[in-house]
Design goal:
The complex is a heterotrimer.
Chain A lengths: L1 E9 L4 H14 L3 E6 L9 E9 L13 E4 L2 H7 L8 E5 L13 E5 L1 H8 L5 H13 L4 H11 L7 H17 L4
Parallel strand pairs in A: 1-4, 4-5, 5-6
Antiparallel strand pairs in A: 1-3, 2-3
Chain B lengths: L23 H15 L5 E5 L14 E4 L5 H11 L4 E7 H7 L1 H10 L4 E6 L29 H4 L5 H6 L5 E7 L3 H19 L4 E7 L3 H4 L3 H15 L3 E4 L1 H4 L1
Parallel strand pairs in B: 1-2, 1-3, 3-4, 4-6, 5-6
Antiparallel strand pairs in B: 5-7
Helix pairs in contact in B: 1-7, 3-4
Chain C lengths: L4 E4 H12 L3 E4 L6 H13 L3 E4 L3 H13 L5 E4 L1 H17 L3 E7 L15 H7 L8 E3 L4 H18 L2 E7 H5 L1 E4 L38 H21 L3 E4 L7 E4 L2 H16 L4 E6 L1 E3 L3 H8 L6 E6 L5 H9 L5 E5 L8 H11 L1
The chains are: A alpha/beta, B alpha/beta, C alpha/beta.
The complex binds thiamine diphosphate and iron/sulfur cluster.
Amino acid sequence: MQHEVMFAGFGGQGILMIGKILAHAAMEAGREVAWIPSYGPEMRGGTAYCQVVVSDRPIGSPIIKSPRHLVAMNRPSLEKFANAVKPGGVILINSSLCPDRSGRTDVDELAAPVTDLAKELGSVRAANIVALGAFVARSGIVDFELIREAVKEEFAQKAKLIPLEMKALDAGRAEAGKKQRT
Amino acid sequence: MGKAFTKPEALADAHTHYCPGCTHGVIHRLVAEVIDELGIRGRTVGIAPVGCAVLAYNYFTFDFQEAAHGRAPAMATGIKRVRPDLMVFTYQGDGDLASIGMGEIIHAANRGEKFTTIFVNNAVYGMTGGQMAPTTMPGQRTTTSPAGRNVEEAGMPIQMAELLATLQTPGYVTRQTVIKPRYITRAKKAIKKAFEYQVAGKCFSFVEVVSTCPTNWGMTPLEAVKWSEETLLAYYKLGEYKTPEQEA
Amino acid sequence: MGKKVLMKGNEAIGEAAIRAGCLNYFAYPITPQSEVAEYLAKRMPEVGGVFVQGESEVAVGYMLFGASAAGARVFTTSSSPGVSLMSEAISYIAGAQCPCVFVNIIRGGPGLGGILPSQGDYFQSVKGGGHGDYRMLVMAPASVQEAVEMMMVAFPLAEKYRGPIMILGDGLIGQMMEPVEFPDDLATDPSDKDDWATNGMENRKSGSRNLVKSLYLDPEQLNDHNLLLKSKYDQMKKEEIRYEAYNTDGDYVSLIVSYGTMSRVCKTAIDNLKEEGVEVGMIRPQTLFPFPDAAIRDAAVKPGCKTVVSIEMSMGQMVEDVERCVQGRRPVGWYGKCGGDVPTPEEIMQVIKEGI
Ligand SMILES: Cc1ncc(C[n+]2csc(CCOP(=O)(O)OP(=O)(O)O)c2C)c(N)n1
Ligand code: SF4
């Protein structure tokens, strides 16, 4: 089984980081992983996205035109990628910044106000981790405990932030559980 | 009113790709205004560098060439030698001009090539993501000087205006900035003077413009202006370093 | 083997050099490989190594030349336009017989081109980007792990043949993160260079001076010098060819030749075609020079194989070598793209089906 996840949003939202955390956790679970960023002269506050491929077999093509899942942290990301998602995948929408929905009936859509939830926790910068928690809980792509460990490792240099990031993960998970599957 | 907001004819009606608080846009505008005022748009050729301004040709409405990294002054030389009637300027960053293109700029200036160079000094490589430039300040952190520029190994930042002013060939060399409105009028005068020397077929002209790169400095636009004024302007002193009349 | 870590190709390449025993790095920033310099700017001071940001790739090429001629292990990384500027130095380094490792994380060209992945520098690396009769051993990794391993063997190979070696990746190999391990057993000690390097006469047993140069004004001497170089390239053809054969044990109707990132996409296409009942084999050259001539010829002329296609992220460069190997015994086609969009498995499946 191969899962591909597209993480997309504004530069500065920590998109690349949550992709990396997922890849890290999946690697610890013994899976094959690849993390592919968008790169370019787009360091100027434009869109940022990355793809994470998680597989039970060696990964062939690392370039995926239609991912299984999408985490859209803003509106342009949803517009750009919603139609590419494979049927049956999860589409997570940051409803704090994106009032739209995918319009897809063949996917598991979850609208979660991750930016607002992060603000409630005290730091808007944790919105990416809230989204990660929600996405992982919803998709079951890796064990939640492994994500917890991977987040801790990512923040090892900024240990002060770890309690906040743990709360952010849990807030995401709670949000994912709240919403009914459609 | 009105006039202050009109767009120079030489400037395209386009959104730039520059970051908020970046001074490239202001400098483009000044160049465009000068070209309009001198009425030379129809015979001007700009040369884009390799750097954040590589897409400058999208923002101007006259002929443009795109150079290889650092080679714009050699291309400008080529144009001027075969078509002295064309008004030619290079627009270069500090990595482009003071690092990889150091040879080209010194020799073009020393040959007294009759074109104009606009040199945008933001003390860092912008386009490639904030590496150290020859103009990076001592102690300044960049992605390739993570502990701050170490002058023992990287030397002191190069002051291009001063360096070019030492050449014995007559030329016009000045350093300006556009980080605050009060500097902009002076900067524009200098750019105009530089182009006027070219129109008169007089000499090589060089305008260094001390700029900002909030993105790669890791600052807000306001912090960037403050840092630029306090740190860069203390080392990169504004003023005219050389005029052709001086040597004459 | 150490622990598996998740690393970006560019960073892993930098770390691999250190693990291989090379602590000297000179470079100039260029997308999509600037992370190597950024990584080593931090890492080299930690391990007591040398990190220098040169003023240009021209200068960097000669920094390598000088350091290597003085007996040190050295390497640099760059991307296409930068490698063009280093090509002059590469020719001198080949002529003067100095071991140096160059990494090219290719981006689209020609000229400024683009910054996305490409394989457009095949000719430049394999046929010689600089002047004169020289060859470079060129290795092309298809994963971050393979990039690490190729980096680590590159240094002893450069010393064995006393010449420039190139690791040819593409933007994706540099930018992608994959799990990697650094095989401890690939670490090597620098070879003894006393018989040729200008490492200080008083430090040598022989006590005689060494000279590093590429000038041979006497035609006979220059010819002899080139014969010596040629003998090394011939030796490489005997000893250094590496390739991977994929799905070639059974019968197949078509043979793909592809390398680097592109070959991974081809593997996916081959797996998908298998599910549809179409068998396709692949030879993936891991060394582009020396090229796996015999392997490709043998795989191409296998009964049942009707066509051969070279799939590259370029407008058809390697295909000329594939044609040379197949010697007209099968039709050889080409498919590729070079704007930065990597062809998809679906596109490749289509190409194969149309070809048969
Ligand atoms: C031969 C070559 N080497 C390196 C590069 C990569 N490169 C592109 S822009 C740039 C530096 C830009 O910095 P600067 O000139 O200071 O301009 P800024 O982006 O700050 O405006 C570099 C190194 C290149 N395009 N070509
Ligand atoms: S990176 Fe720096 S120089 Fe480039 S556009 Fe942004 S602020 Fe300007």
